[in-house]
Amino acid sequence: MRIFLTGATGFVGTMVASDLKAAGHDVLGMARNDAGAEMLKSRGVAVHRGELTDHASLVAGAKACDGVIHTAFVHDFTKFEQNIEIDRQAVAAMIGALEGTNKPLVIASGTGLLGLGATGAQPLGTEKDLAPGELATRGRAATEGLVRDAAKRGVRSSIVRLPPTVHGKGDKGFVPMMIDLSRKGGQAGYIGEGVNRWPAVHRIDAARVFRLAAEKGAPGSTFHAVAEEGIPMRVISEAIGKGLGLPVRSLSMEQAQQHFGWFTMFTMLDNPSSSAWSRQTLGWQPKEIGLLQDMSETYFS
Fold it and tell me: Is 164 exposed, middle or buried (0-12, 13-18, 19+ CB in 10 A)?
């Protein structure tokens, strides 16, 4: 297939492009600027200029290819709700372009929409689960709903939920944020007993899930790119403390808000997640190192 790939220059998207090419697919990668275009060319990826708010470019890219993998997202978490809406509208535009074609559309979402507070009592989330209560029609869950409904409109649509922790070389996500906040605060902190859990996956393993979903995902399916079901926040903080040579401390909610600021809501997330059904359905098996080993080897050098 020829796949239109949004987010092709991103942390996960670059690995998706490499995996697609290694499996014999052609890739048309979206680039927002000249630097991104040159990066894609250097990797042997054809370039399509555009961005998430340019719906005409998204429609053109989707129509020019045999399928779409959508990994792009505006990663400014201080404007999270605004960026979710940008993403929702972009997905809606691409669904319109693919309607009636039975072409695959695979979008990135997050297991975090299944998570709750920092109690450590959240049940293991599965691919069949939806966001709880009224949250099922809000945020990224609403975008997931669009994608599931697209299966009724002649699109072979599917969802790949990524865990909060997608790790590997070049990571600029949640763990590096925590490391930076620990450096600035002089301590590695966690809330309460630190029993809330984050699932994790290496970005190379995650990339294969997107490709397999495009190749054989059934319309309306949801997959979990999860290698480790749930690492307690206290354990992650202890790894940060060891890596930085800083004390590790339990924080009250007030102390956590002073230490983490706007990031507090994410450090509270209890999000244990299973990928058993995805592994069985796609034949996917994670092969890369786990989060704690990756942190020890590459995150503090």
Answer: buried
DSSP for 100-149, please give it: TS--EEEEEEEGGGG-B-TTS-PPPB-TT----GGGGGSHHHHHHHHHHH
Tens of pLDDT, residues 284-295: 999 999 999 999
pLDDT score for 134: 67
Helix (H, G, I), strand (E, B) or coil at 170: coil
| 85 within 8 A of 21, measured Cβ to Cβ | no
118 and 169 Cβ atoms separated by less than 8 Å:
no
pLDDT digits (tens, 9 = 90+) for 63-119: 999 999 999 988 776 777 888 999 999 999 999 999 999 999 999 999 998 876 656
- H or E element: which one contains 159? strand 156-162
Distance (Å, whole) CA 281 – CA 285: 11
Mean pLDDT, residues 255-279: 94
d(Cα 214, Cα 205) in Å, to the nearest integer?
15
Cβ proximity of 198 and 162 under 8 Å: no
Cα 194 to chain centroid, rounded: 23
Q: Which residues does 221 contact at the CB level (< 8 Å), separation at least 6?
A: 127, 158, 159, 213, 281
How far, in Å, CA of 71 to CA of 131, rounded?
Answer: 20
Which helix (H) or strand (E) element contains residue 19? helix 13-22
Residue 162 has pLDDT above 70, yes or no: yes
